[in-house]
Amino acid sequence: MRRLFVAAIAAAGLAGVLAHDSHPVSRRKTLSFGPVLPHAAYHTNPVYHTRLLRSDDPYEVARTFVEDLVRDIPGGSYQIRKDSYTDQATGVTHVYVRQYVNGIEVADGDINLNVKDGVVLSYGDSFFRPKEAGAQAFQRDVDPHSEYCQSLEREIADQLQHIDGSKPQHGVDRDALTQLGYLYDWNCQFVNLPDFMSESPDFANAEDAASGDVTRALLQFMIAATPSEELSAEILGNTGKYISDMRVTFEHHLAGDHPPTFTVDNVPDAVNPVKGRLAFVQVPNGDATSLQLVWKFEVEMKDNWYEAAVSAEAPHRIISVVDWASDSPVPMAPIPPKGGEGATYNVFAWGINDPSVGERSIQKENFDTLASPLGWHALPYANDPESSHLRLKDSSKIRNTTTTWGNNVFAHEDWEGRNNWVNNYRPDAGANKVFDFKYNPQVTLTDDALEEAQKYINATVTQLFYTSNLVHDLYYRYGFNEVAGNFQQHNFGRGGQENDAVIANAQDGSGYNNANFMTPPDGQNGRCRMYLWNTANPYRDGDLEAGIVIHELSHGLSTRLTGGPANSGCLGWGESGGMGEGWGDFLATTIRSNRNYSDYAMGSWAANQEKGIRNYPYSLDETVNPSTYKTLDKPGYWGVHAIGEVWAQILWVVSNRLIAKHGFVDDLFPPKPLDDGTIPEGDFYRAREYDAQGKPKPLVPKHGNSLVVQLVLDGMKLQPCRPSFFDARDAIITADKTLTGGENFCELWEGFASRGLGVDAKVEGRTPWGGGVRTNGVRVPAECSSDVPPPEEPAPGDGDDDDDGDDDDWPWLAWVVQHSTPYSWRWPF
C-alpha cells in the first residue's frame, strides 16, 4: 500500500513530499486512529420522568435511567465509574457509566449522564447494542486499521489530482500534504504486519505459554509504535528473543469486582512496565456493530504514551490507538542565520504573552488560597517524590521548598530529553525565595546557539513554573478541581486521585520547535515538555511564550474533563482530537486578550512568523480568518491541529457575541475567598440568586469573556466521550441553560451559525481521521429568528454615556448585537 502511495506522490510531481524537511527539527512519531461508532449519540433534551423524580440521589436516578437503556442488551450489565462526581458550583452530578458484556468491559461503551434535581439534563450514549435481539455480537477478525488506511489513501489520491507540484502557489497544499504523508506513513506502514506475523513460524512458536497471546500482541504493537526503524527491524528479525524476554505479571484480588489486569516488563522501547487488561471494543461492520475481544495496553514511551486496543486472537490487529501525548505543530520556519511573604519571580507577568509584547517584572507568588492552600512551594512529605526514601513518624508534615517544586508543578530542565525528572536541575532561590535571574541571550554562531540558550535556564524554569501555577489556579476556580481530575500531589481531602502534579520540562532536549503534553488518567502525573525554537538567533524559548504553555496545559484540562477523570481516551482522533487542540488555542487566546480588540496569531513569537503556526490568525473578520465548519473538508484539514484551528475560531466568534452582550473584565481570576471560605461577588459575579427552596444558585460570571470560559469548561464536563463538533456545541448551550437558565441561548446559536454550525449543519460519511462531506448550517432555532425591524437609532450624541438618566439607546444597541455579522462590531461600545 505504501508503495502505491509513494508512486502516486511521484506521479503528481511531489516526490519530495514525504522527505524530511531541511530544517533541523525533530518530528515526533505518533499513532492515533480508531473506528467511528455510528450509533453514538448525545441527547440534550432534559428527561423528566416520575420514576426519576422520586429520588433525591443523583446516582439512583442514573441507575434507574441506565437500567431502562440496557434492558434489552443480551448479557449486558454496567458499572458506575468511581470518577463520577458532583460539581459543587453547578449542582450537576456527572455520572460515568461503563458497559460490560458477559462480565468483560466494553472499553468504548460509555454513557455519561448529567443529573440535577432528579432530572437527566443531558446524556451521551455509545453502549453496544446488537442490531437484532439474539444476533451474534462477537467478531473474531476485523481490520478497521486497514479500512482506515484505505480511506486515507483514497482521500490523498483525490487531493493529489488538484495539486500542481510545479506551481509555487500550491506550496500551502504541498505542506499540508507533507503533514498528511507523515500521518499515513506512521499509521499505515505496518498495516499488513498482523498477517505477515501470523505466518512467521518464529513468531507463532515463541514460548509465552504463561501469558497466552499477550506478549505477541504487545510486541506487534511495539513494532508499529517505535520510532526507531532499526529496532523494528531487529524485533522482526528475532521475535522469539523479545517475546521470551518480556515478563507478564497478572494481578489477582481476594475480593471485590475487579477486572483481570496485568503488567508486562522488559517491553522494547517502553520506559515503564506496560499495563494491560482484557476488554471488548466496538467495530462497525457494514450497517451493524460488533464486539472485538482485545488486549488494552497502556504503553509509556519516551515521546508517546499510548492507550492501544489490539485484538486478543491472532492475527493481532490494532483496532484503535490513542496517544495521550498531544503536540503543538512544527511550523515551516526558516533556518536561523549563522552567527518572606511568599516567593517573588522576575518573569513576563500574567497577560504578557511573549517577549515581543512586554518586559519582565517582579511578580509575587499570587496564589489562590482556594486552589492552592499551601501556596506554590509546599506539599506534604507523604506526597513528595523526593521524600519517598525518608522514614518519617509524621509524613503529613509539610515540606516547604525554595525551588520550582510544589504541589501543582515540578518544573526543571530536561536537556537530555529523557524521562528522568526527580533529580533534574531546578533553580534554588534561597530562604527568601527570590527567583530573580538574568535573561539576556545574545546572537552567536549557530554551533553555540544551544549553549547560549542554556545559560538562562534559571529564568526559563522560573517562567514555566510561574505560568503553570497560574493556569492551575485559574482553571481550578472555573471548576477543574480535585474531583474533576486536576493535577495535584495532595488533594486536601477534597476527593479525586492524588500524586499527579504536572511534570514540566523546560528546554527539553528531545527536539526543537514543538511542545507536548501527556495526559494519563487521574492519579498519574501529567507531563509537559517545552522546547527551544531554532527559528531565530538567539534561539527562542517556548517556555517564555505563555500561549504555548497554556495550550499544552489545556490538553490536561480537556482530556480529564471529557468523559471523566479516569478516561483519557476520549479525544484521540478526528473532530474530538481536533477540539482537544482547539480548546487550547481558544483559552490561550482568551487569556491574552484585552478590552481593546485585536486579532491574535498562535505561536508567532516562538516560530518567528508574524502569522503564527496556524493557517490564519484568530479574527472576527472573515477576510482575515474565513474558517467555517465546511473548512474541515479542505485539503490540509485532516490533522487534529487544523481541525482544532477551526474549532478555536468558531469559539472565538461565539465568545465575542457574549462580550458584546455582557462586556469585558480585565482580570479573568475570580475574587479570592474570604477568611470564612465564602466567595465574594465583587464586580466579577452577578448577585447571588436562590431557588424556591432557598438553596443558592451557582455563581454566574458577569462579563462575556469570563462567562465563556465557564461555559466552555462546563461544556467539557457535559459532553460525551469522543464528541463531535455538534456534541460540543450542544454541550456549551446546555451549560448555559444550567448556569443562567438559557439567557444566552440565541447569542450562542447565532455565533455558532455564523461559522456554519447552525441547526441545519450536517456531515455525511465521517471517517476516523476527520474526513467526510460537511454542509454549513446557518439557521438558528425558530425562537431566535425575528423579522421585527430594529428600534429607532438614538440621535447623534445620545450614547450610553450621555448622563441623561435614561437608557433609550440600549434597545437599538441590543438589536445591532443580535442581528449583526460577527465581525461588524467591536467591544467595548
TrEMBL record:
Zn(2+) binds at D327, H551, H555, E581. Residues 82-127 form the FTP domain. It comes from the Eukaryota. Residues 1-19 form the signal peptide. InterPro entries: FTP_domain, Fungal_virulence_M36, Peptidase_M36, Peptidase_M4/M1_CTD_sf. The active site is at E552. GO terms for molecular function: metalloendopeptidase activity; zinc ion binding. CDD domains: M36. Keywords: Hydrolase, Metal-binding, Metalloprotease, Protease, Secreted, Signal, Zinc, Zymogen. Residues 798-810 have a biased composition (Acidic residues). Pfam families: FTP, Peptidase_M36. GO terms for biological process: proteolysis. Residues 768-811 are annotated as: Disordered. Its EC number is 3.4.24.-. Its main location: secreted. Belongs to the peptidase M36 family. This is Extracellular metalloproteinase. It comes from Dichomitus squalens.
